[in-house]
Amino acid sequence: MAFESIPSGKETEIENKSINNQKESASSNRYFTLLKASGIALTADLSLIILKSLLACLTGSTVLWADAWHSGGDFAVTFTVLTSIIVSERYKSNIWARNAEGIVALLISLVLAVGSIGLIASVFKNSADEFLLRPAIPLIIAIAGCSVACGISFIMFRFKRKVGLARDSIAFIAESVHTLSDFFTSLGVWMTLILGYFGVHIERLMTLVVGLIILRIGLKISFLSLDFFDVKVRLVRLINRLLSESIVKQIKSLNKALKAFYSRIKGRTSKLVFIREDTILKHRQKIIFFDLLLIVFLYWGTGYYSVLPYQTGVELAFGKVVSENPPGFHYHLPKPFGKVILVDTEVLARLESGYRTLPDFQGAEPDAYLWEFTHNQGKYVKLNDEAITITGDENLVDVNALCYYRIVDPVQYTLNVQNSHEILRNLFCYELHLVIARYSLDSLLTTGRESVQTDLKRNLQALVEEIPLGVEVRKVCLEETHPPLEVVPQYRQVASAREHKSEIIHRANAYFNEQIPKSRGTAGAELSAAAAFSSERISAANGAAQSFLLKQKFFLKYQNVQSDRLWWETVEKTLKNKKIYILPKGAKRRIFTKNTYSGEKAREK
Amino acid sequence: MRNKLIYFYAVIIILLFFCVLCTTQVTIGWISVITSFGRPVKVISEPGLHLKWPYPLHKVEKIDSRLALLQPKPSEFLTSDKKNLILENCICYRISDPIAYLKTVRNKTGLELRLSDLLASHTGLLLGVRELSELINVDSSKMKFGELNDELTNLMREDSKDLGVKVEKVFIKRIMLPYQNLLAVYDRMRAERDRIAKKYLAEGEEQAIEIRAEADKISRTIIAEAEMKAAVIKGEAEAEAMKVYGQAYQQNREFYRRRALTISVNRLMMQPSRIV
């Protein structure tokens, strides 16, 4: 039922045979008119191709390339129609000429199919960015060019239809419908350009659509050309010649099934997949209208947005702030006329000075964040340029500080200030350095931290309100504050020195505690010895005195006897064990003593 | 009828097109300058929709008028007491007069260059008359850092008026010493800490010596006292003994003499000698 774009050669042959020679002149007249019309159509198509290719180059858009391809398909179709007309007119008797028609159609259809498949594959393979328009000329000129292309294809449609109806050529009528579909694709591309001008990008979708359309044309032509060639019959004959009986029987049954399948597809698809041209033709007004309406609807629908629970939506219309919207579902004017800026107002934002926390840190952390490791390893990255600061007593300190703030005025934050986060960070650093320049290093490390934090918060809040920045400083924390790493060993040494000092004093005390008791002991010993000595002496004296007294009592009584006894006892004792020399009387005795030499006379006895 | 419908659509589309071409939208935070073949015609700063002629006649240039931040690279300056400092500055500025801006500096890079140069010269000037103790001081009353920043802001504000830019705030974000001086400061800090450490140790030694001396003193005192007492006791004992002896011998002198004689002779003769 569908209009066939390639008439079979047999049809025109029969037609011609049935016409009398009377009509020869009329048919030749018709022939030349159709030829001329084909020529005009071809020229128009060629110009369309050139125009579209130019536009495609200048805008760099894949959609326009697809449209150019589509025009190329149209050109090919016109060309086949032309060849069929020529062949059917001139080479009526030559079978191979007729076959040439079918071959050309087949080739064209293959080219189209392959091209369209390439286009469709690119839609799925390439990222969305590659489809975006990158015009080297103002987009308005591209839109104007596209409008011209649309106009040309519409005019060609009308022309071909008129000629086809006037000269009773089914091929031309079919071709006119094809040109109409070309007009629709051009219209779609035109819409893409317009929406691209306003920032709504449907290029990728449109490339897919145009690719599918081209695929449809290619497949249709191929099916029809196959039909023209009676491929099935020839194939069957070939197989019969080559193979044996049983296999042929099997193939025949397979063929039957295929045939049934094919006719089913043909019947179904000509209604569904290959949308019938006559329906397009009948309802073209409505189709155009509803397409435009749909596009407007989609465009209007891009204005809906939702505001998440921690955000505020600043809505702009024609550049003016319309409202600041709480969380929920809202509408703003579509893209060029209005927009929304979503600002995280409920989030407590965090600002770091001296270091940065790595958000996705997965590695190992040190066991404890000592001064060497603080904000230096693990999930922190140290920035010495921000951290090292001069203190009031011209020493250096390594400060890591943190500021928590909240956006209270989203309009100020986004629309009055560029890059508010960085400005706040710089103000924070400024205040931090300013405050620290008033404190000495020792107080910073110990007692002054509380007042540093209070001062800093107060000053920063005042600064922020002065600009105004639209934020509220919630909390300022001084994180690890320590002397620079280069001097940390010396700082630790001081603590060690204090310990040493205590140690030395303790040792001295130990000595003290040892010596005093010892000396007391020695003293006690002395006293005891003296006491012992004294009692010894006194006792001895008493004893001797007593014995003397006792002895002398009896001395008086027995004085004489006692004195003699005493004398002999003494002599006995003394002469005991002694060498006794008894010399005769009268012998001269000389005693040589040591003193003889000194001239002393020897004693004579 | 069909023709009319198509023409109707075409007309609507063309009208829309022209509406788009003849209006311009000014967003809040941006300023639009409308130029006609290069000559500035109008400056629009109120947000909203405004009319203009289409493209070739009127051209719109949009300039961001929000507060922007410029951070020039840190540079080294000298104070009046010959101390080298590296200062990091920040400028917060806003474009207030777009026509002057477009005339003088043309674009953002040019502007930033100009502002950096101005800032460097002004900072050098203001810093050269001040001493380091005015910037960094434990005593808040002597510190004039805020005033320095205010002066800097005022100077920059005046100079940037020609550029069509309003400088809102200039501040010195950070003062740092050059690397060599940093090393010297580290050495000083180390020496200071060493001093404190040694002080502690010395104090400890001092106390230890005192304690030991005290201990020695006390022990010697105790022993001396004890010795004294012992000598007294011994003396007393000797005296007592002598008294006893004397008292006893006194009673019989003769006996004593004889006895003493015998005892002495015994002793003498006890020695090995020869009796002739």
What does this structure look like?
The complex is a heterodimer of chains A (605) and B (276). Chain A has 605 residues and is α+β, with helices and mostly antiparallel strands. Chain A contains 18 helices and twelve strands. Chain A has helices at 9-18, 22-59, 62-90, 95-125, 139-167, 170-197, 203-229, 231-242, 245-269, 277-282, 284-301, 384-387, 410-416, 420-436, 441-445, 449-466, 488-557, 559-575; strands spanning 304-307, 311-317, 320-325, 328-331, 338-344, 349-353, 355-357, 380-382, 388-390, 396-407, 471-482, 579-580. In chain A, the strands form four sheets. In chain A, strands 6, 9, 10 and 11 form a four-stranded antiparallel β-sheet that branches. Chain A is elongated. Chain B is of the alpha+beta class and 276 residues long. Among the domains of chain B are: 2-63, no CATH class; 68-177, Tetrahydropterin Synthase, Chain A. Chain B has seven helices and ten strands. Chain B has helices at residues 2-22, 98-104, 108-128, 132-135, 145-160, 179-250, 253-270, and strands at residues 23-26, 30-36, 39-44, 48-51, 59-64, 68-70, 75-78, 84-95, 165-176, 274-275. In chain B, the strands form three sheets. In chain B, strands 6, 7, 8 and 9 form a four-stranded antiparallel β-sheet that branches. In chain B, strand 2 (30-36) and strand 3 (39-44) form a beta hairpin.
